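Technical note accompanying the year-one report. For the benefit of new consortium partners, we illustrate the data format agreed upon in the data management plan: each record pairs a sequence with a structure-token string. No post-processing was applied to the example shown here.
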Amino acid sequence: MTTWNLEQMQRHLLICNGATCMGAGAEEVTQQIRDEIRKNRLDEHIHTSRTRCNGRCKDKCVVIDYPKGTWYSVQQEETARDIVHEAVKEDAIIYSIEHGERKRRDNRIKGIDKYRKGKGPMKKAILFVGHGSRMEAGNIEVRQFIGQMREYIDPVLLVETCFLEFASPNIEDGIQLCVEKGADEIHVIPIILLHAGHSKLHIPAEIEHAKEHFPDVQFTYGQTIGVHEEVFEILKTRLTETGFDVDQKHEDTAILLIGRGGSDPYANADFYKISRLLWEKLNVSIVESAFMGVTTPTVQDGVERCMKLGAKKIIMLPYFLFTGILMERMNKMAEGFRETYPHLSIEMAEYFGYHPKLRMVLLERMNQALNGTSTGMQDLENFREYAKEHGYEHHHHHHN
């Protein structure tokens, strides 16, 4: 429904399209309200908008009528249509403002219950944030990874998984799910290798946005995996699986460490640092870096450099947490290199996947967030300063 001329508008109905309300039929409620407006030719007088979560998840589906400021709980079609005529039964009114006095019906169920002093301990949630992949297999790996971690996490902690993009639930929905389950504290832990735009801007933006909707919830933010000693142990394991002996000298073998690639120079610098440290830990003459996109050197560049340095064998070592489109592309590249350079031995190592060492790193990042020692909190402060100076329009990185 489009309202071009607002001069005759008398009311504005805000229909919650947050994850909980959508799951309870908010789309149907939206269409029922709009249909009733059309049938009664009230399009010029009543405007409707879909909103994100309004924080009254237990009253789903929520509709707010302005300028009167009346909040409705819509659980039947009759209620949806009665809103248009301001003839809603009292038991469907969550909150109303009449004659300047705020009124709340005592028999209405309250919104999201919170544990407060005198009511019991705070309920803490751990929300792991995966990057997300267009390939569902990669998203399944993330969910299974977190599922396998649960036995190492205190059972009193609520554990949920969400994704930055390409998969569901997104971060907003993940936070909302934690709140619906009673969380007073949410510790957001990124499952991200390098500290770049996603961890510096996008995830902090989601956390700051959530604070506006849930001001009584405490949020902390964990740090990325980063340059961590256990990462090198994982890489050495993946090399060993190809038949590479990490304890022997390899004069003619090159390791080509391949990352996703990005525009953040500090993240790219960390990647080069990891390559250098890996070289320090191996008895091999060549460890080169390459990227799948956005920046250079490309994988092709990396292979050619390894050959120029005298490599007769190249092990392509993916610096990826889980499978996805880029892993498929990398495997095809390896096949192409074998055809193009028949004199060269090309091996492909496995990506990180569910490795016990990776579990240890994420548990460490989780505990840092819980005990207040995570550098992620500084990232939130840095984001707030960035947003003040440059502005930041909140939007989702959630594509299907």
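Partners are asked to follow this layout when depositing records. The first strand starts at residue 11 and ends at 16.
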